[in-house]
Amino acid sequence: MGRGKGNPTGWIARVSTGQILFEMDGVSLSNARQAATLAAHKPSDLRVRGPTRKYKDKDR
C-alpha cells in the first residue's frame, strides 16, 4: 500500500451538534482573534428563529 493518495482538493472538519465553525480570510490574526472573542461573549439567548406563521398547503 502506498502512502500518498494524490493531491488533496479540500478540507473536512467534524463539528459537533451545537457548535459553529467559523473560517476567517483576509483579516489579520489579531483582528480575527478580537472578532472571535467578541462573538464568544455575546449573550447565549440569541437564537436564529424560523417563520412564526404556520402555513397550510392551500396558503402556499
Give a structural overview.
Belongs to the universal ribosomal protein uL16 family. By secondary structure, the protein is mainly α. It has one helix at residues 29-40. The radius of gyration is 20 Å and the shape is flat.
What's the number of extended β-strand segments?
0
Helices and strands, in order, run as H
**How far is the N terminus from the C terminus?**
56 Å
Shape: flat
Rg, Cα atoms, Å = 20 Å
Helix tally equals 1
Beta-strand portion reads under 5%
The main β sheet shows up as:
none
Q: Note the quaternary state here.
A: single chain
What's the helical proportion of residues? Answer: 10-25%
Structural class: mainly alpha
Mean of pLDDT? 75
Low-confidence stretches: none
